[in-house]
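Sample pair:
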Amino acid sequence: LLTIIKGNADMLLTRMSSNHPSRERLLQIGQAADQASVMTSQLLAFTRRQVWHPRAMDLNRVLNGFSGMVQRLVGEHIAIDLQLCEGELSIYADPVQVRQIVLNLVVNARDAMPDGGTLTLKTYLLNEDDGKTVRFEVRDTGCGIDDAALENIFEPFFTTKEGKGTGIGLSMAREIMERTGGTIEVFSTAGEGTLFQLSWPHARETVLDTPEGGTIENAPRGTETILVVEDEEDLRDMLSEVLRDGGYTVIAASGSSEAHELCGDYTSPIHGALIDVVMPEMNGVALSALLKRKIPDLKILLMSGYTDDIIGQESESRPGIPFLEKPFEMRDMLFKIRALLDDKLHPGGG
C-alpha cells in the first residue's frame, strides 16, 4: 500500500508544474508515506521478518542518494548541513537497514527541534592502530536528552516522545549495528542538542551498484520487454505504467498461472521480470525457478512488502536472485531494472 501511495504521488509530481496549487499537498502525502515506511521497516526488523542482505556499499553514496527524502521528513524549518568526506566510504552492511537507521535518527532529531534548528550529517574516515573505521555522525541543535533518559535510550519500547513514539527505533538501530560489526553511541545534554555517532569497520572493497536517489525523470530508460507479476491490481498497473513511461514493453500478469501462460504465448524475447514473492497460487521464488527453466536468460528481480518463511528460507537457498524491498521508490525500481538488464545488479539488490 505504501508503494502505491508513494509511487502515485511521485508520478503526479513529475507531471505537475512547480507552482501548481496542489503540489504542496502531494509533497505532504510523500512525506507521510516516507515516515510510515520508516515505522514499517522498524516493525519488520523488530519481529525479525526482514531479509538481511549485507554487502560492500558506499555510505557516502547512500547518504547523498536520499538527502531529498531527509529534507522532506524534517521540513523547511530545519536546515540540513551535509558534510560528507571525499571519496568512497566502504562498509559491509545492508543498505536498506542503513537507510532505516539514518531515517530513524533523522525523525528523532526533527522531533527534538519543533521550533527549527540545524541537522548535521557528517562522515569521515579514521585511521586507527587496529585498522580504518568509518564514522557517521547525526547532530541536532534540539532539546537534548537528560541523564535518566540517556541511560535507557537504546532499550526496547523506551521512548521520550510521550506516547507518540514506538520505542523500537533506537533498539533496532543498535542491534543492526552490532550485527554488522559496528557500534552506535549517543552524547547529549538537556537543552544542548544530541549527537549520535555510528562506526563501522572499513570494508576493503566496494561493490559498485546502481546510483542512489534522483527522480523518475532522470532514471535510466530502456527498450526491453519486462514481465511484471503482481497480484495487487493497483500496484501492478502502476509499475506497468512507470516501466512503459521508461520506454519498456510490459507484459503484466496477476499471478503465476497467467505469467506462465503469457510467457508461453509471447513470441518476442522477454528480457526481464519483476515478480512479487507472496502470491496466492505460487510464491515468486518458485515461479522464478519455473520461468528460468522456460527462459534460461531471463533476468529476475523479486519484490516483497514483508518477509516470511518463503523469503527467509527459499531466497537464501537461491542467492542468485536480486531482491527489492517494498515500499520502494519508483526511481529506485527503474535504476535496479536497468542494472538488472545490464548484469550490474548483484544478489540482494546491489
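Residues 312-319 have pLDDT under 50 and may be disordered.
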